[in-house]
Backbone:
C-alpha cells in the first residue's frame, strides 16, 4: 500500500526530523510470501503468506516492558529514515512480526492490515462499545479504516464527514449510516440534527485540521471521548479548552498501534471487514514511478493506491 507518509517523503524529502538521503526505499504496508525462515522459527515456513507489522522495538525499555511497545524510543520502522522500506522484492524481518494470513485473506487485504491496525487502535483508545454513536472526521484511508473497525466492533450508528464527495461516496459504499459533506451548508447543524441535539458519544478526528477538531469538541455530548488520529500539517492547533473542561471530555491520541494485528486479521478472515474495498487505484510494481507520481498529484481523487507483484 502507498501511505500518505510515503507520499510526503516522496514530495518533500522529510517528515519532521526524519530526512531522506537517497538512495532510500519507501513503503511500510505490505503482505508477502515467506521465502526462507530462520532455524529457530516454528510458526512459519516457506510458502506461508504473511502480513508484516513494520516496527521492530527494543523489548527492554519501560514502554516495551509495559506492553506499550508502539511508544518505544528505539523502534526500527520500515521506511522511516534511515531504515529502508518494503517497496522492493525481498525484505528480511523479525518472524515475530510476520503474521500468517488465513486462506480467506487475500494479498491486498493483507497489505492493508497495517492501516486497519491504526483504525482498531483508535477505537480501542476510544473504548468504543455496542450501542454508541460515533462521528469520524475525514474519509481518507485512515478515516475509512476507523469506520470499518467501528462497524466490526458493533458500533453501527456512525457518521462520516469529509469535504470531498468521492470519499463520502466510498464511505457510503462501505455502509456508513450517514455521510455529511463539510462544504455543503451548515455542517454542525446537520450533524447535531443527526443526534437529536444530544451529541455523539465518540468522535474520531482523522483529518488533522483545527476546524474539524473544534467541530468534534462542540458536537460530542458531555463526558464523551474524542480520539485524535490525524496529524496537523502545522504541528499545532488552537482549541477551546474551556469547552473541553465544561463538558468534561476525554481526549485520547493515537500513535501507530499495539497488539492489534491478530484482531485485524481475524476481523477480515471472518468477513466483518473487507479493507480492499477502499482501494481506488492498483498498479503493477514495475510501474511504481507512475504510481507515486499519480498518487501524489491526485490526492483528492485517489483514496488508496496499492502496488501488486505479478
Residues:
Amino acid at each position: 500500500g502507498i501511505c500518505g507518509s510515503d507520499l510526503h517523503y516522496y514530495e518533500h524529502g522529510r517528515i519532521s526530523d526524519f530526512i531522506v538521503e537517497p538512495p532510500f526505499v519507501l513503503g511500510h504496508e505490505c503482505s508477502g510470501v515467506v521465502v526462507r525462515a530462520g532455524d529457530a522459527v516454528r510458526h512459519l515456513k516457506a510458502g506461508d503468506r504473511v502480513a508484516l507489522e513494520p516496527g521492530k522495538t527494543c523489548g527492554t525499555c519501560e514502554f516495551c516492558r509495559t506492553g506499550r511497545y508502539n511508544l518505544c524510543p528505539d523502534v526500527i520502522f520500515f521506511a522511516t529514515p534511515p531504515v529502508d522500506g518494503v517497496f522492493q522484492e525481498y525484505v528480511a524481518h523479525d518472524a515475530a512480526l510476520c503474521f500468517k494470513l488465513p486462506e480467506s485473506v487475500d494479498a491486498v487485504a493483507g497489505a492493508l492490515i497495517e492501516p486497519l491496525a491504526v483504525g482498531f487502535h483508535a477505537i480501542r483508545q476510544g473504548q468504543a462499545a455496542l450501542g454508541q454513536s460515533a462521528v469520524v472526521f475525514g474519509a481518507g484511508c485512515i478515516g475509512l479504516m476507523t469506520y470499518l473497525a467501528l462497524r466490526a466492533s458493533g458500533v453501527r450508528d456512525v457518521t462520516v464527514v469529509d469535504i470531498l464527495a468521492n470519499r463520502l461516496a466510498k464511505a457510503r459504499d462501505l455502509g456508513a449510516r450517514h455521510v455529511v459533506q463539510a462544504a455543503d451548508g451548515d455542517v454542525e447543524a446537520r450533524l447535531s440534527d443527526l443526534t437529536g441535539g444530544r451529541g455523539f458519544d465518540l468522535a474520531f478526528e482523522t483529518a488533522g485540521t483545527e476546524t474539524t477538531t473544534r467541530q468534534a469538541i462542540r458536537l460530542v455530548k458531555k463526558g464523551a471521548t474524542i480520539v485524535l488520529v490525524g496529524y496537523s500539517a502545522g504541528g499545532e492547533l488552537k482549541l477551546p479548552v474551556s469547552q473541553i473542561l465544561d463538558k468534561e471530555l476525554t481526549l485520547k491520541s493515537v500513535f501507530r498501534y499495539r497488539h492489534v494485528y491478530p484482531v485485524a486479521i481475524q476481523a477480515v478472515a471472518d468477513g466483518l471487514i473487507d479493507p480492499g474495498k477502499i482501494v481506488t487505484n492498483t498498479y503493477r510494481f514495475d510501474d511504481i514511478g507512475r504510481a507515486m507520481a499519480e498518487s501524489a498529484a491526485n490526492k483528492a481523487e485517489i483514496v488508496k493506491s496499492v502496488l501488486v507483484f505479478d
Summary: Residues 119-253 form a domain with the Rossmann fold fold (CATH 3.40.50.720). The chain is about 30% helix and 20% strand.
